[in-house]
Amino acid sequence: MDLEIRHLRVVCAIAEAGSLTRAAAALRMTQPGLSAQLRRIERLLGGTLFDRRRAGATPTPLGELVLSRAHAVLPGVDQLLADTDRAVRRATAPTRLRIGSVGAPLLGHLLLAVRELLPDAEATARCQYAPAPLLDDLGAGRLEAAVLGDHPGQEPPPRDGVLLHPLVTEPVFALLPATHPLAGQEEVGLARLADEDWAAPRPDSDRTREYWSSVFSLADRHPRIPYEAEGRQLIEIVRAGLAVSLCQATFIEVPGVAVRPLTGNPLWYRHVLAWHRDGPLARHGATILRRVRDGYLDTCADSPVYARWRERYPGAAQPLV
């Protein structure tokens, strides 16, 4: 028999109660059963732990040594058990779910799926332009799930414990001023845009700019980029007629801009869902992926330009789940 934590608890209970009879009652054992267990513990440790008299049980010098070590060990064990119990309860019935996202159309669908599956949990969200900080937060436990995005050749390295679930790879479209001569065409050649002024993300925000440049370099073209912007600011620069740019296929046209497919589909963007392997969403993974996939398809239908493109290329950009 090996010494176990429960044996230390028995020794401490006898010392605290002062007698085997009272300790047996506290431990909900019979007095003969406790006596037999104490004898087994004493044989294991090699000596008598208590002097047992009619007045009660008094620790021997060996018993005092064992008690001092038990009092040092048991609080740490109890804290460990409490911490792991809280962690398990958070994983099975979390009170808060922190969701991160890049600029992509999946965040709303993910939040709706999480609220439906875990209605008692409070879901919060925060957005960043680049996926790398979100991956770091997932790995460190600062987020429970995230919507990520990348481009061919820019897939992120694995993070310990983080599960990546690619949803779909879709084309990248041109974003033009509504008054641009090419806005009247069904598709736009990327080479036709190379001589325009461009608005593009900053090189240090994520690797989108790097990916765009690599595709232009294959055609030995290097567009001029006087405007570095993201999100709403980039759209406003294009709307003002100052530049052209690129956007996700699911981007819905707003007044003043036009979204057009690129001839030959030279650029692509991949949507990815991610959560921690040991997190509260892992056991709902298959259901979440289905819900977000269905939401993505609804988003595709709401974008007329992308919907027409999908009709022309029925085998492309199909969700993986």
Automatic annotation (TrEMBL):
Listed GO MF terms: DNA binding; DNA-binding transcription factor activity
Domain of life of the native organism: Bacteria
Record's protein name: LysR family transcriptional regulator
Family from the record: Belongs to the LysR transcriptional regulatory family.
GO cellular component: protein-DNA complex
One Pfam family linked to the record: LysR_substrate
Keywords linked to the UniProt accession: DNA-binding, Transcription, Transcription regulation
Domain HTH lysR-type: 1-60
